[in-house]
Design brief:
Protein Transport Mog1p, Chain A, single chain, about 20% helix
Length: about 220
Amino acid sequence: MASQFLILLAIVCLVRLGCTERMLILDKFEMPDNYYKNDFLGVSIEKPDGWYRVPDEKLRSTFLIASNPSFYENESISDVLNRTNNTLIPLFGFSEYQLSVQNGKFNPYIIGFVTRLRNETAKESECESFIRLDDFLDSTILIKDASTCFEVNFNGKIYYSEELYLKNGNKYYRQTQYVRRKKNNYVFTFSLFYDDKINKIQLHNIMNTLKFSDE
């Protein structure tokens, strides 16, 4: 389980940011049992029946967030995004199994986060915003490209995607990253983590529920 989250930590840093950048948890959003919705960002996504929400504290630890409530106390997420650049903000995480109860099975995940790019970084295309995982992963983990950057459509919106294979010892993992840029240089990234086609289909079905309401 620990090694899986080590890999996940590297995966969620694929946008051209350092993992040392300040990272925050959104303070105002809706997270009922069956979906995530954020009105300010205009984004919503459904959680499948029987799946679990990744707890906020796990998202914080996965993103190596040093909690500092005074930094954003009484400050809205719009204020944070307007005055900062390259700040990773985790939005949600869904997993098929509870983190502590997997019965020896692989636990597929989807993690969503947003950042606002600096002006010079924002000049790059979405495909150029992907980086290799080599700088973040342990040398014992083998990385292999499964695809080049390509376009994909979810609910009428264009995303840019890359796929990777990862091998850690005798275990194989797969990862697909979807990136979408919006106005004001906001970049949304959705990371899917799986080990077989069934997991991948499940995660793609979740992506098909992703909606942006402000366009």
